[in-house]
Amino acid sequence: MFKKIQELYFKLPPIVRNPYFMGILLFAVWMLFIDDNNALTQYKRQQELSTLLEKRDYYINQIEETDKKYAELESNPASQEKFAREHYRMKRDNEDVYVIVTEKEAN
Tens digit of pLDDT for each residue in 67-93? Predict the structure, then answer.
């Protein structure tokens, strides 16, 4: 049996029999597939990072828009009145307000 294993060993190319090559190969297999920070995990983390960065950019833009609207609301009395009428359904004394609710809003 030992002779069969020895024959198989000597049939391998010399580079595969090199102990340094075997060490590098084992290290590469370990790092790519077995380790906690393997290639698949790194790919998933990169995808998650790009998703989070897109969300961050979206929220930064939303904050900027909200700040602009707030500055406009603070500085302009006409915009304050418009905001109060639209969002809180406020009215003047001589007005009647009719609210029309569509099916989409009711659900």
Answer: 999 999 999 988 888 888 888 877 777
